[in-house]
Specification:
Length: 103
């Protein structure tokens, strides 16, 4: 019941406001116009720059989803690096993996 009363009150307030606006326009008074909001500037969270592109359009992340990600390893490519088949990560061998965690 309270909801209906509240909606009726709001409806009456809006009717009064509409009549005031109609009278103001009829009498030749300018009806206050809302200012257009400026469009938000583009910002890229990856490049940390404005107005060049949006984060979704960043050329840095334009890598295709099927391609293998770039390696950040800068060591000697002939060195054998330990790899864990359980974690699927470099840094330790499968034999020495602490597989208590489930992924």
């Amino acid at each position: 019941m309270l909801v209906i009363v509240d909606l009726q009150r709001k409806n009456e307030e809006l009717k009064i406001k509409l009549k005031k606006l109609a009278l103001a326009e009829f009498n030749g008074n300018d009806v206050p116009k809302r200012e257009k909001k400026a469009t938000p500037r583009l910002f890229c969270d990856i490049c940390d720059c404005f107005d060049l592109h949006d984060t979704e359009d960043c050329p840095t992340q334009a890598q295709s989803p099927d391609s293998v990600p770039h390696s950040s390893y800068h060591g000697n490519p002939t060195d054998v690096r330990p790899y864990c088949d359980i974690c699927e990560a470099f840094g330790h061998a499968t034999e020495s993996c602490n597989d208590d965690q489930t992924f």
